[in-house]
Design goal:
This is Uracil DNA glycosylase superfamily protein. Helix content is 30%, strand content 12%. It has 224 residues and is an alpha/beta fold. The protein is globular, with a radius of gyration of 16 Å.
């Protein structure tokens, strides 16, 4: 874990945000899946005590090795695992038959903002600063697929990994809006999954649930 922490830019340690959405076990061994959102949400002033440095220290020294933000962290005062997109991500992990504490999860950018657009002026710079961590993680963990929440993260990760070739069938929601999730592969065989964002799309609802499609991409059978 300390090797991963060394990849985090020291200049970001004092800013509100977080790097790890899963604990030490998730970053200790190879994983079929590496999960990336865009950046931590919430108002920085409301979370000014949760800096990238302090949260990283908690993950390393305080939280259980099996910790998962999606399962174990309380968001907006709700019971852990019940608020926002957490139940939808946990639904995916359940369908894949994996323990949330074993799936390495992070964000493309480590700095917190209420809205993605709030970081517009420095987004390009932050992406470059944070990418060395993700590059290191992908090399160490050797995932079959990088699952990206939404098109912003997906487009950038595809570019960084050179994933240009469509891989398999797309998943299209069975409703009037027909939102599409897609997968692309690079020359090393890494699949970049550009999924609907679980903060908006309800992955637990049958018509908008991409989990069987993601399972297929990973060569798994979804758990019934």
């Amino acid at each position: 874990m300390k090797d991963f922490i060394e990849q985090i830019p020291q200049s970001l340690f004092a800013r509100s945000g977080k790097v790890f959405y899963s604990g030490r076990n998730a970053f200790a061994t190879r994983s079929d899946l590496y999960v990336l959102g865009v950046n931590p949400g919430g108002a920085p002033k409301s979370h000014e005590d949760e800096t990238i440095g302090s949260h990283t220290n908690d993950v390393l020294n305080l939280y259980p090795a099996d910790w998962s933000a999606y399962r174990d962290e309380s968001w907006e005062g709700a019971a852990p695992g019940t608020y926002g997109m957490a139940p939808r991500v946990l639904h995916l992990f359940a369908k894949l038959g994996v323990n949330p504490g074993t799936v390495p999860c992070s964000n493309l950018i480590f700095v917190r903002s209420r809205r993605e657009n709030d970081l517009k002026s420095e987004m390009s710079n932050l992406i470059e600063m944070c990418w060395s961590f993700h590059e290191f993680a992908i090399a160490k963990l050797q995932p079959k697929a990088v699952l990206c929440f939404g098109k912003t993260a997906g487009t950038i990760v595809r570019k960084k990994l050179g994933a240009h070739e469509p891989n398999g069938d797309d998943f299209v929601e069975k409703n009037n809006r027909r939102w599409r999730s897609q997968a692309f592969e690079n020359t090393q065989g890494i699949i970049v999954v550009v999924a609907t964002h679980p903060s908006i799309a309800d992955w637990t609802a049958p018509n908008t649930d991409p989990t069987h499609w993601i399972s297929k991409l990973l060569g798994r059978n979804a758990v019934s």
